[in-house]
Amino acid sequence: METRYSLQKKVISQNLYKEGLEAFLTGNKQKAKEIWKKAVELDPDNEEAVRGLNRLKD
Questions:
Q1: Domain residue extents for the chain
Q2: What pTM, to 2 d.p., does this model score?
Q3: Tally of CB atoms within 10 A around 40
């Protein structure tokens, strides 16, 4: 069973992903990269943030 703390980290990570996506869509790729890195640090299983970072590596 997941602890409340790990669930909170997942929620924060998802919110960071959305914030990073907004930055990405407005052309601020560096900010998106920084935000998505934080999202993955909080939740390495956040596939959306991982994909976003991989997209920026291309």
A1: 4-57
A2: 0.90
A3: 19
